[in-house]
Design goal:
The complex is a heterodimer. By secondary structure, chain A is an all-alpha fold. Chain A has eight helices and two strands, in the order αββααααααα. Helix content of chain A is 70%, strand content 2%. Chain B is built from two helices and no strands. Classes of the chains: A mainly alpha, B mainly alpha.
Chain lengths: 266, 77
């Protein structure tokens, strides 16, 4: 704490990163409900780039893929092999399109957190993950209702077979809470808080390094600043791992929920 | 007359709270990953299934630590 206080007493103040990071001022249409800030701009840009990549790759698909198409096919194959085939099996192939879109959308929105000059994961604001979690919620519920019918789907989720009847008084509310209420909430929060924490750590490291190097109050502090910068760089590498893992986990959990909803046995 | 403080701690209580909140999930993720690796070493042909389930287990365990991060911001003070 004392280091921060000493720094703060100088002309240029250093303050630890706060939640204000995630609510930048509007750029376009300020004051209206469709106000667009920096994060929305990044989201629009990245979504455009992602669409452009896949449109360019499959604009003129060849039987023997070359170049960009090859790369895109490898990317699509990744989701199909590691998520769809492993969790849902052959009959789950129809969900490949949704799961692939989900994976790459989350990946591109996460990766802006470590792209220089963007430096803000879009998914660290609750709206984006919440909407994706809501979509997943609709998808797995509709999948379950289609596969089993409305009544059997509800009862297979709420009444676990092979339990004494009296226990349903206790178990059914818990099952209802965990399946229909907590699932989308944890799905959204897991992604959002992971990206938020990662972004705060990066801001902490790099802003501290900046002030140690350029506003030192002892000759040793620039050295410390270089050390802190190194730690920030290491954390960027760790963050790039988290970015892929979070996109994977979100998609994997959606696939697991779909698999659980479509199979009658709980 | 003002009371004399012999020992005073200033700073963020949320940071201490998060430190405490990270203990459980830390141990939990360690157990999840350790057991998964143990299983992979015993049966290398099951690696794919074990890895998938390992990530699932991590996702559920990690949620507790992440709630810890979030609550620090909810109750700032």
């Amino acid at each position: 704490m004392s280091g921060i206080t000493v720094l703060a007493s100088e002309g240029d103040t250093w303050s630890p990163p706060s939640l204000n990071e995630f609510f930048p001022g509007g750029i376009f249409f300020e004051g209206t409900p469709v106000e667009i800030n920096r994060i929305h701009l990044i989201a629009l840009l990245m979504t455009g780039l992602l669409s452009l990549f896949f449109v360019l790759a499959f604009r003129n698909p060849q039987l023997v893929p070359r170049g960009l198409q090859n790369l895109a096919e490898m990317a699509l194959d990744l989701v199909r092999t590691f998520i769809v085939d492993e969790i849902l099996g052959a009959e789950g192939r129809k969900y490949t399109a949704y799961l692939t879109t989900l994976f790459f959308l989350i990946l591109t929105w996460n990766v802006t957190g470590i792209i220089p000059f963007m430096n803000m994961p879009v998914t660290a604001t609750i709206g984006f993950p919440a909407f994706m979690a809501l979509t997943s919620y609709v998808v797995f519920n509709v999948a379950g209702i289609r596969a089993q019918g409305f009544g059997p789907y509800l009862s297979s989720n709420l009444f676990i077979p092979g339990v004494p009847k009296v226990m349903y008084i206790l178990l059914t509310p818990i099952e209802f809470l965990s399946t229909f209420i907590l699932r989308p909430i944890t799905l959204a929060l897991r992604l959002m808080v992971n990206m938020l924490a990662g972004h705060l750590m990066l801001v902490l490291f790099f802003s501290a390094a900046w002030y140690f190097v350029f506003y030192p109050n002892s000759p040793l502090q620039p050295l410390l600043g270089i050390g802190v910068f190194g730690a920030g760089f290491a954390f960027t590498l760790f963050e790039s791992l988290i970015i892929v893992i979070q996109a994977y986990i979100f998609t994997l959990l959606t696939a697991v929920y779909i698999a659980g909803a479509t199979s009658a046995h709980h | 007359m003002d009371p004399v403080n012999l020992a005073e701690i200033t700073g963020s209580l949320a940071a201490v709270g998060y430190g405490l909140a990270a203990i459980g999930p830390g141990v939990g993720i360690g157990i999840v990953v350790g057991k998964a690796i143990e299983g992979m070493a015993r049966q290398p042909e099951m690696t794919g299934v074990l890895r998938t389930n390992m990530f699932l287990g991590i996702a559920f365990t990690e949620a507790l630590a992440l709630i810890g991060v979030g609550l620090g911001f909810v109750w700032q003070g």
